[in-house]
Design brief:
Belongs to the LysR transcriptional regulatory family. By secondary structure, the protein is of the alpha/beta class. Helices cover 46% and strands 22% of the residues. The chain is built from 11 helices and 11 strands. Strands 3, 4, 5, 6, 9, 10 and 11 form a 7-stranded mixed beta sheet that branches. Strands 1-2 form a two-stranded antiparallel ribbon. Strands 7-8 form a two-stranded parallel sheet. The relative contact order is 0.14.
């Protein structure tokens, strides 16, 4: 029994007419009749009753029709899934936060393109919460993101930790200092980030100030790190952000290291649990290589 036997039988069962079914299948009526006889011989029972006036299904035929339709539907879905899998194997969707754009992707992407020259690489700048959502839905293959990670179906590793630095408006009294302590920021106007948009940055900064027994004066909450730095440049206050942001400095702010042990942010690489496509396996390996070679 082959799928063509099932297709022929379903066509006859739907048309209840061999001539119309043959036209629908683009085959001859004798060939169709022969295929139906072969199918009935294989099944071992009559599936159709025929006379000169009409064609009807037997009780066995009614039962067989349901299973035949289900098998054909499953076969079509299997074909579509296989084609989709083949297409997906040639596509890698990468989500990233700005840190990865500066510190990781410029090193990894050239190596990945050498290994996977036929793979279409899609890059998407997304906040951490959006990345996790898209990893779970399958819209992203891998995310370069921050803590926290909520889903139990997400695998992740820490790639590196980035120390935070103090950012001040040009001309701020503290800008004359070579490094700045938490105590020096006590009572200073401060721009913080919204935890819904900035991953763990807000909680790390708050924990550091609490540990150091210092409390800045929060004057503004920003939705992302770039906005935070721009607000500082407008003179609203100081902030703590990762040092890589100096790459986006337009000259309106100054960066100063923290005195003593600085708080850090982890950059994570995350992906959904399960079988990994070849391009994703290569990316995971290569993303860790700069750390070894650094």
């Amino acid at each position: 029994m082959e799928l063509r036997h099932l297709r022929y039988f379903v066509a006859v069962a739907q048309e209840l007419n061999f001539t119309r079914a043959a036209e629908k299948l683009h085959t001859s009526q004798p060939s169709l009749s022969s295929q139906i006889r072969d199918l009935e011989q294989c099944v071992g029972v009559a599936l159709l009753e025929r006379d000169k006036r009409k064609v009807t299904l037997t009780a066995a035929g009614e039962c067989f029709l349901q299973d035949a339709q289900a098998i054909l539907d499953n076969a079509e879905q299997a074909k579509l899934r296989a084609r989709k899998a083949a297409l997906n194997n040639d596509h890698l969707a990468i989500g990233f936060v700005p840190s990865a754009e500066v510190n990781l992707l410029p090193k990894v992407l050239p190596m990945l393109r050498l290994r996977q020259p036929e793979t279409h690489i899609e890059l998407a700048s997304l906040i951490t919460t959006q990345q996790e959502e898209k990893l779970r839905s399958g819209e992203l293959d891998v995310g370069l993101m921050r803590y926290p990670v909520h889903g139990q179906d997400i695998e992740f590793i820490e790639l590196f930790h980035e120390p935070l630095v103090v950012v001040l408006p040009v001309g701020h009294p503290l800008s004359r200092e070579e490094s700045i302590s938490a105590q020096q920021l006590h009572g200073v106007n401060f721009v913080t980030t919204d935890p819904d948009y900035s991953g763990e940055l807000s909680s790390v900064v708050n924990a550091w100030f609490e540990k150091e027994r210092s409390q800045p004066n929060i004057v503004q909450v920003a939705t992302n790190i770039l906005v935070t730095m721009n607000l500082v440049g407008m003179g609203l206050g100081a902030t703590l952000i990762p040092g890589y942001m100096n790459n986006f400095n337009t000259g309106q702010v100054v960066f100063r290291p923290i005195k003593g042990e600085a708080p850090t942010l982890a950059l994570l690489m995350a992906w959904k649990k399960g079988e990994l496509k070849p391009a994703l396996r290569d990316f995971i390996e290569l993303a860790q290589r700069p750390l070894v070679e650094a």
